[in-house]
Amino acid sequence: MGKEKILSILKRELVVALGCTEPVAIALAAATARSHTSGQIEKIHVNASGNIIKNAKSVGIPGMSGKGLDFAAALGAAAGDPDKKLEVLDGLTAEDERSALKLIEAGRVTTGQAVTPKRLYIEVTLQTNQQTAKVVISDNHSNITLIEVDGKAVFLGGCENIGIQTVEEELEELTIDEIYDWLLTADLHDLGLVKKSIELNRQIGIEGLTGEYGLNVGRTIKENVKKGYLSDDLATAAMSLAAAGSDARMAGSILPVMANTGSGNQGIAVTLPVVAVAEKLKVSEEKMIRAVALSHLITIHIKSKFGRLSALCGVTAAGMGASAAIVYLLDGGLPQIKAAVQNTIGNVSGMICDGAKAGCAMKVSTCSNVAVQSALLALNNRAIQSTDGFIHDDVEKSIESFCKLGNEGTRQTDQLILQLMLEK
Questions:
Q1: Number of domains forming the structure of the chain
Q2: 84, 104, 354, 395: least buried by Cβ within 10 Å?
């Protein structure tokens, strides 16, 4: 694969996002529907896939006290700016929140589960006293595939378009060998987006370490290092900073992050363990940027096979990318990078996703710790062997097995998780 194609993949999959991407995507659909209607809002109905419901049900929305699918839709319709895409909720005020809550209190917002094979599917129908608009987002959090006004399609596109399918084929052709070769010769000037991901995500990590957010996982780790209960090492540095970023994001921080393959939490887990280790090792800025680029690309490579949403936690894939990057920071080569990915696959493959929430920070912490541990084992030429579990000699086949588990082996698990959540 050519260098320009790899760079274009990186640019396409790194997107600035404000707030957890599932409720934000609902808000984007609602805001888009509202932008195609005039008059007073009478009714908003959200139909979403089970995975969207799971991740939008309990997570905080930036600067707001409300939660849930209905609130995200009401907020998008009342005040969202669809031109801002995944930053659709940027700049909203307390008055905007009150407007959204009034729609809910008046019984104007309803939600339901869509009957669809797609794991990422959102359909918002917005009715006013003058018009009705329907917007569908599928496969990708900002991928609008249909805009319909008064029963007539005014836009058809997105991932249903053949040109986008070609892009997916490009992603499938990517390998760790190609990523590593590209990394060694990539022009640093082309990695501005990676540098921005470090800056944005580090800022929310620091915010989580200094403020009161969610379970305060990252901050608690840091405080216990000061007390002497935990050692001040690479693993705790990675766990603390990454978990703190997730603490702040899941609790509704107004700071944007750089998402990776549609997930802000994943973007945090891809970058911040690597940044923390790089700062601990005092490496050059260039080496840090290249390491984070490696982490982003390996995670994109894995997620292209794994899918945007699954019954398994997407942060596990981020841990695989981070482990490879930490090997790079510690001067390991391609064989050790592959071994680190293998070790991470063999460790965290069974971690389920039970929705976006405060507890996600604990999973980010766990995967950050595993990333460091897997890297150190790899640097000592220790790797899980092909005789163990579903690990293969070829790391690409191990990735395929992991993704097959997430896609084919957990469908019933996914349904049961959602059922258990909705029964509460």
A1: 2
A2: 84
265 CB-contact burial (10 Å; exposed 0-12 / middle 13-18 / buried 19+): buried
Q: What are phi and psi of 142, to 5 degrees?
A: -115, 15
Low-confidence stretches of the chain (pLDDT < 50) are: 159-166
Q: Which two tokens stand for residue 54?
A: 């799971």
For residue 3 the two structure tokens come to 């260098």
Q: Same structural domain for residues 109 and 184?
A: no
Nearest CA to 60 out of 359, 415, 351, 364 is that of 359
Reported as a single tens digit per residue, the pLDDT across 136-149 is 999 888 889 999 99
How many angstroms separate the CA atoms of 359 and 361, rounded? Answer: 5
What pLDDT, on a 0 to 100 scale, did the predictor assign at position 296?
97
**What pLDDT is stored for residue 307 in this prediction?**
67
Place of tokens 């320009």: 4
For 327, the 3-state DSSP assignment is: helix
Cα dihedral value 137, 100, 63, 30, nearest 10: 10
Task: Report yes or no on 77 lying in a domain.
Answer: yes
Same domain, residue pair 158 and 193: no
Q: Do 201 and 266 fall within a single domain?
A: yes
Give the domain range for residue 140: 19-162
pLDDT at position 227 = 98
Per-residue pLDDT at 1: 57
Domain for residue 5, yes or no?
no
Mark whether 197 and 287 lie in a shared domain: yes
pLDDT at 329: 98
